[in-house]
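Hi V.,

You were right to ask for the full record rather than a summary. Here it is.
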Amino acid sequence: MAIITLNNNSLSGITALPAGVGGKVLQVQQNTFTTKFTQTINGNSPTTLNNGSSDIGVTITPSSTSNKILVSFNLGRITSHNTGSGWGLAFGIQRNGSLISQAVNTDGGNTPSYTWFAGTEEIVYDTEGASFQFLDSPSSTSALTYTLKTISHSTSNYIITINGWWNTPTGTNQGYQAGTITMVQAMEIA
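Predicted structure:
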């Protein structure tokens, strides 16, 4: 391995990285949702995920138009079901109520354009958590609210459950009935 000389400077003499290298986290905003909630959704009308009192999301105000926002959604548990079977559920990241075009599928045609898909087959056991990150370039210094739009697998009404088992838990020793939390973070990156 070759030895590299730093123009006769010691490492303590370097005060900054070259332009274009690295980045700094300037601020972090987080919302945590700790209770189970349900929502009725339909494939005919995509809906913003809401726990009954607020949208599931986070707001951040960038300090410069050149900064980026790293947004993270961590849904502890998702169940999408009708009366007897589990089904799939698509999610899309929204900025101020509109899907971010760079964060959705671009196949076009008959393909619904979303960010990720969570599938369930059996409402009792087969539920899952989902996490997704996206680095947004909003070019804004206004307040930005990041939320999730969701759509059920078909045009019928389906009840989704977030942060918990679809039914009433019967015992704290039943891991498959566990409750979870949902966290949403937004980080401003210089």
